[in-house]
Specification:
The complex is a heterodimer of chains A (120) and B (556).
Chain A lengths: L26 E7 L5 E4 L5 E2 L11 H12 L5 E10 L6 E2 L2 H8 L8 H4 L3
Antiparallel strand pairs in A: 1-2, 1-4, 2-3, 4-5
Chain B lengths: L5 H22 L5 H10 L2 E3 L4 E6 L4 E2 L1 H14 L3 E4 L4 E4 L7 H9 L17 E2 L14 H11 L14 E4 L13 E7 L5 E7 L11 E8 L3 H15 L10 H8 L1 H15 L6 H12 L11 H9 L1 H10 E3 L5 E6 L10 E3 H14 L4 E3 L5 E7 L3 H10 L14 E2 L14 H14 L2 H4 L4 E4 L13 E8 L2 E8 L11 E2 L4 E2 L3 H15 L7 H8 L2 H16 L1
Parallel strand pairs in B: 6-7, 7-8, 16-17, 17-18
Antiparallel strand pairs in B: 1-2, 2-5, 3-14, 4-5, 4-13, 8-9, 9-10, 11-12, 12-15, 14-15, 18-19, 19-20, 19-21
Classes of the chains: A alpha+beta (120), B alpha+beta (556).
InterPro entries (chain B): NIR_SIR_4Fe-4S, NiRdtase/SiRdtase_haem-b_fer, Nit/Sulf_reduc_fer-like_dom_sf, NO2/SO3_Rdtase_4Fe4S_dom, NO2/SO3_Rdtase_4Fe4S_sf
EC number (chain B): 1.8.7.1
GO molecular function, one term (chain B): sulfite reductase (ferredoxin) activity
């Protein structure tokens, strides 16, 4: 996962690492748009959508790696693609971690970001 | 205030031109993200959770009204109409778009500002006491030294690829308002027995994952030795600092692993080598810089209006009693404008507020503005007779909150509402604490209290030195908040002590209330502050208040 941590020291305290050799948890491919920085998700038909539920839910590890490679090649479109955990929901994939949930909306202190942009 | 020389001007303009070209090459595909990332970080441009973020340096926290207005203009033109003042005297814009960043940098250069060295493994923005040049307790103005250090460290060829970032802070007063003990190098201006000005030099302080209070390596460094000595410290760190492990790369670890005696020996040896190479030009430069920081032409006028208002108007009195600090000219006061109205984001100012502050600084404040690491704005020189009208103008703009140094004057990092490194949110915790205690009307009863909140272990919110520190973590996929007590960021710096297990997002405000109700119950008199009470009674009574009821619930 590529994050802005190259010059910083992020921490994942006490999380016991990814679920090693256990069953593969479903994933989506997410990134930020190069020009605007907006959070986007890779769809099954190769679009970058701003809606999490439009993302392709990837259930197979090898396919996930291929989709991540496909995303990484789009250097003029997006920055920092990575695989994020997700689960199926009634409208499509839903985030499982609060960080990814925040990324679908925007900050909690102002009505800025997606929660405003997508509402209008 | 210091104005750019032709050299400074040309340097900043050249950098804007370089970065403009680099952005173009990124957008047309000539540069990959891996190639571009270090270039944008060198210019303060991060990619965060929802958007890019541009961090702009406010050297030693000083702004003139024109600069403040330009920040407002940038906020309106290229961002969302506000800016966020940080805990290291920077301002951050949270929504710039990559193709527009060169225009922002150019607009900054127009007012002698930039975002150079606000990221990366280099010497960061040199911070200073926000009351510099005004405080009654000041020995000497730290800003000329801070400016000298800024010029020396900017684009210093030897120190562009340090093992890690490097932070320097300086205070000119014995009451340390610049948290010097939590910096890689902390400088405290002192006078020796002969009455000469010099520095007590501290090295190896820092918060983050391994919090440490800095060690004193020199009790008195003569003024003229400042640059060679600081350069010697950096050189030794550059050679011995660990590049193999990012978490052990700060100078505090080098100091502890190598030992203070050995590091001091190495620094002194390097200093002896470097000192003769400084031929005195640095001192000539310092003399020129000092002229730029000459005190303003203070007015001599009666202060009766202030006294009358203070007696007659309880709202004004409450504000004056919390938000003013003694000025070295007793007809004047230092005004701290709180950016902590309950429910608002600590450190945020709208473009309208920025413009008003610029106007007020021009009309009543000798054209001087400061940003504090505590995320407030300071008008350092206001004649007392102008305070009533100034206060009225601040109140109208939502800037009249009388809470400086009190519970709701919380410092908080952006946390997971913006930051890609965060493990939990901090802003909403600050907002809820402030509004909760406002509703309880307990803030003035509780008295002086510093609550500091960080959304990850990197501690941008300085939680370790908060009287009450709150650290937001990710515990098994849920936000969890750890509390520390007894931290102190002053000249008596102390790292706070953990209370025990953390609290869930919706449990943290009630937990802080239990601590504070325990304090109100055990303090000996109203004048015994929370920190004093903690030092007297220790952790146990607070632990009991925090966890006793919880244990009962768990058992049930």
């Amino acid at each position: 996962m590529i994050r802005e941590n190259i010059l910083y020291s992020p921490d994942t305290p006490d999380r016991k690492g990814p679920t090693m050799s256990r069953r593969f948890t479903p994933k989506i491919v997410t990134a930020n748009r190069l020009r605007e920085g907006d959070v986007v998700y890779l769809t099954a038909d190769d679009r970058w959508s701003e809606l999490h539920h439009e993302a392709e839910l990837i259930e197979d590890e090898a396919h996930a790696q291929l989709r991540l490679l496909h995303a990484s090649a789009q250097k003029l479109m997006i920055v920092g693609p990575y695989l994020a955990d997700a689960r199926p929901g009634p409208r499509g994939p839903e985030p499982t971690h609060f960080r990814e949930e925040f990324r679908t909306r925007g900050p909690s202190n102002y009505n800025h970001g997606k929660q405003a942009d997508l509402a209008s | 205030m210091y104005s750019y020389s032709d050299f400074d001007e040309a340097f900043v303009r050249t950098r804007v031109a370089q970065f403009t070209n680099q952005v173009e090459r990124r957008l047309d595909g000539s540069l990959t993200e891996d190639e571009f990332r270090p270039l944008r970080l060198m210019n303060g441009l991060y990619l965060q959770l929802h958007a890019y973020m541009l961090r702009i340096a406010i050297p030693y926290g000083s702004l003139n009204p024109g600069q403040m207005r330009q920040l407002a203009y940038i906020a309106d033109t290229w961002d969302k109409g506000y800016g966020h003042f940080t805990t290291r005297q920077n301002i951050q814009f949270n929504w710039p778009k990559l193709p527009e960043v060169p225009a922002i940098l150019s607009a900054l250069a127009d007012v002698q500002m930039h975002s150079i060295q606000t990221s990366g493994n280099c010497v960061r923005n040199v911070t200073a006491d926000h009351f510099a040049g005004a405080a009654a307790d000041e020995i000497a103005d730290p800003r000329p030294y801070a400016e000298l250090l800024r010029q020396w460290s900017t684009d210093h060829p030897e120190f562009q690829f340090l093992p890690r970032k490097f932070k320097i802070a300086i205070t000119g007063a014995p009451n340390d308002r610049a948290v010097t003990a939590a910096h890689d190098i902390g400088l405290r201006i002192v006078r020796n027995a002969a009455g000469e000005t010099g520095f007590q030099v501290l090295v190896g302080g820092g918060l983050g994952r391994t919090p440490m209070v800095a060690m004193v390596v020199r009790d008195f460094l003569p003024e003229a030795d400042l640059l060679p000595y600081v350069e010697a410290v950096l050189s030794v760190y550059n050679s011995f600092g660990r590049r193999d492990n990012k978490f052990k790369a700060r100078i505090k670890i080098t100091l502890h692993e190598t030992g203070k005696d050995e590091i001091t020996r190495l620094v002194e040896a390097e200093f002896a080598r470097l000192r003769p190479l400084f031929g005195g030009n640095d001192q000539k430069l310092l003399a020129d810089i000092r002229e730029a920081f000459a005190p303003p032409a203070f007015r001599n006028a009666p202060v009766d209006a202030y006294d009358a208002f203070h007696t007659a108007d309880p709202v004004f009195r409450a504000w004056a009693d919390t938000n003013l600090t003694a000025h070295r000219n007793d007809q004047y006061a230092i005004v701290t404008v709180s950016l902590k109205a309950p429910g608002k984001t600590p450190g945020d100012a709208t473009s309208e507020q920025m413009r008003l502050l610029a106007d007020l600084a021009e009309r009543y404040g000798h054209g001087d503005l400061r940003i504090s690491h505590e995320q407030n704005v300071i008008l350092p020189h206001v004649h007392k007779s102008d305070l009533p009208v100034l206060h009225a103008a601040l109140v109208k703009a939502g800037l009249g909150t009388a809470n400086v140094g009190l519970l709701s004057d919380i410092i908080a990092c952006p946390g997971m509402d913006y930051c890609a490194l965060a493990t939990a949110r901090s802003i909403p915790v600050a907002q809820e604490l402030a509004t909760h205690f406002e509703a309880l009307k307990l803030e003035h009863e509780i008295g002086p209290l510093k609550i500091k909140i960080s959304g990850c272990i990197n501690a941008c919110g300085h939680h370790h030195v908060g009287h009450i520190g709150i650290l937001g973590l990710d515990r098994a996929g849920v936000e969890n908040y750890q509390i520390t007590l007894g931290g102190d960021g002053t000249e008596d710096a102390v790292i706070g002590e953990k209370t025990g297990p953390g609290f869930a997002y919706d449990e943290i405000v009630p937990a802080i209330e239990r601590i504070l109700r325990a304090y109100l119950g055990l303090r000996q008199e109203a004048s015994e502050t929370f920190l004093q009470a903690f030092k007297r009674v220790g952790m146990e009574p607070f632990k009991a208040a925090l966890y006793a009821s919880e244990g009962a619930q768990d058992a049930a």
